[in-house]
Design goal:
By secondary structure, the protein is α/β, with parallel strands linked by helices. The protein is built from 19 helices and eight strands. The chain folds into two domains: 164 residues, Rossmann fold, CATH 3.40.50; 268 residues, no CATH class.
Length: 450
């Protein structure tokens, strides 16, 4: 499309005005496109119209109205509902238009597009690897060209540039494999932490074993996940064909490490941790000095975002079973987490930073190992974590959306009073880490030119 300004002639459409639909619609409107047409379910039409009055966003009654007049249409719906919604509205798509989706798992979305979208319509889909509470600027945005000519593909990229994200180009199969590798075990770890604390009737900020340093990060990211909507995580775990191996191995890693802990099998436990550490972090992992190891986390950053008032001298070491199992899982599956940073999400970035900090801080790692093998006072909590992990994996293995929802909402209710605070603090933590990483990369780039 050369010789005229696309913004003057192209109309954009968003079907599904949930949290992420709003992020995209508002970004498109700010970028100055001629018209941004949006809709949600028909019963929300008037409320949405009143809400967006004066924003320049054109609210329409339903997906038919959006599809008929828009040159680019984004479906922002739950992965579990994408086939039903696409089936309803795709036949009304304009000839030559582009359809896109914003689901976290692409296999069911692409199957829906191939089944229902007319052959004279282009398919270029995407996925923003962050939640609605994160500034999309600089965050990864995966663009997947599935069925389009060059002109439609270039137009799609231009449209998505409105988010100022870091665009990564993959196939939808690569996307699902990498997001399974990076997100599934990440979410499972934080979900299981929350469920374990709920089962034990323990708020981590009130327990000396769960405050300070890494525990601040773990608690904040747990609260962040439970402050979001359950379907965001359920779709990825239950519908991604690459996810099952991840959840099975993470549960197996938790189980096998926990058995060694209760048997106090010192040598086998240490050998297992050392092997996983060497695979993921290299031989230097056990010799790096404290404070110089993590590319993401440091004591000053982690302590800044504490939710607890318990003084530092009262903190107690714990096993960090959840983090040990993550690294063990990566080792057993042969996953190099650093290779997947192109598709990193804020929770994954925090989890990788936390594991790196633990494994590359020798005194902290030794405290964790000793606590795991000798500190009987934390065995009950680790047992709750083991049980919670098994429960989540069973739910995922069965493909049980309602069971997933009930488990998620039950834990969410337990932490309800601190969810808003946790979400706000975790957003600040993510922003702090993003700035530190950007500054570090900038310095590295300068040095590489000298």
């Amino acid at each position: 499309m050369v010789g005229y300004n696309e913004k003057d002639v192209v109309e954009l459409g968003v079907i599904g005005m949930g949290d992420m639909g709003r992020v995209y619609a508002k970004a498109f409107a700010r970028a100055g496109w001629k018209r941004v047409n949006v809709c949600d379910i028909p019963t929300k039409y008037q409320a949405l119209k009143d809400e967006l009055q004066g924003t320049g966003i054109n609210v329409l009654p339903d997906g038919f109205a959006v599809a008929r007049r828009s040159d680019y249409i984004m479906y922002c719906v739950e992965a579990a509902n994408v086939d039903k919604v696409v089936a309803a509205y795709a036949p009304a798509t304009k000839i030559g238009a582009v359809v896109c989706g914003q689901t976290s798992v692409k296999d069911p979305e692409i199957r829906a597009f191939e089944k229902h979208v007319p052959q004279d319509v282009h398919i270029v889909t995407c996925h923003s690897l962050h939640g609605p509470g994160v500034n999309p600027a600089g965050q990864p945005l995966v663009v997947m060209r599935h069925r389009s000519n060059d002109e439609a593909f270039r137009l799609t990229v231009r449209i998505l540039e409105a988010l100022n994200s870091k665009i990564v180009y993959l196939s939808y199969q690569e996307h699902d494999r990498i997001t399974a590798d990076t997100q599934v075990a990440t979410h499972l770890a934080f979900l299981s932490m929350g469920t374990a604390w709920k089962a034990a009737a323990v708020y981590p900020w009130e327990n000396p074993s769960y405050v300070g340093g890494l525990e601040n990060v773990k608690t904040l990211m747990m609260l962040r996940i439970y402050s979001n909507k359950w379907h965001v995580y359920a779709g990825l775990a239950l519908l991604n064909p690459s996810a099952k191996a991840q959840v099975r191995q993470y549960a197996q890693s938790v189980s096998e490490l926990f058995k060694m802990m209760i048997q106090e099998d010192d040598q086998a436990f240490r050998n297992r941790i050392a092997a996983a550490s060497e695979f993921v972090f290299g031989k230097s992992a056990t010799t790096t000095t404290k404070g110089q190891s993590s590319m993401l986390l440091s004591d000053d950053v982690m302590d800044k975002f504490a939710l607890s008032a318990i003084p530092r001298h009262d903190w107690k070491p714990n096993s960090h079973l959840s983090l040990l199992a993550v690294v063990d899982c990566w080792w057993k599956l042969g996953i190099n987490p650093y290779a997947h940073l192109i598709c990193q999400t804020p929770p994954f970035r925090m989890l990788l930073g936390s594991t790196e900090y633990l494994f590359r801080t020798p005194l902290l790692l030794e405290d964790s190992i000793v606590a795991a093998l000798r500190e009987k006072s934390i065995r009950a909590d680790d047992c709750e974590f083991y049980t919670a992990t098994r429960g989540w994996v069973e739910c995922i293995e069965q493909g049980d959306f309602e069971g997933y929802r009930a488990r998620f909402e039950g834990t969410k209710e337990f932490f309800r009073e601190r969810l808003d605070e946790g979400a706000k603090a975790s957003a600040e933590l993510i922003e702090t880490i993003a700035k530190r990483t950007a500054a570090s990369n900038s310095t590295a780039n300068v040095h590489s030119k000298l």
